[in-house]
Amino acid sequence: MICNKCKTEMVNDCAVTSYMGVEVTITKKRKGMFNNSKDNVKACVCPNCGSVEFYIEKYDDFID
Ligand SMILES: [Zn+2]
Q1: Torsion sign over Cα 38, 5, 45, 11
Q2: What's the CA gap between 43 and 17, in Å, rounded?
Q3: Which of 1, 18, 47, 48 is the most exposed place for a label (fewest CB within 10 A)?
Q4: How far away, in angstroms, is 42 Cα from ligand 1 center?
């Protein structure tokens, strides 16, 4: 991923943790299915300006 602010290559795959040390997950309830879409949130960090972007890897699961 490229930084939106300074166009530097960002450092991918940084873990996102809360103050209690629990990983942040993102979920979406699915219509008519028992399983919810769920994935851990990851971040990439710009080593030049400190900008942070959040992303998930299993984004295909979130398509309706
Ligand atoms: Zn940057």
Answers
A1: positive
A2: 10
A3: 18
A4: 17
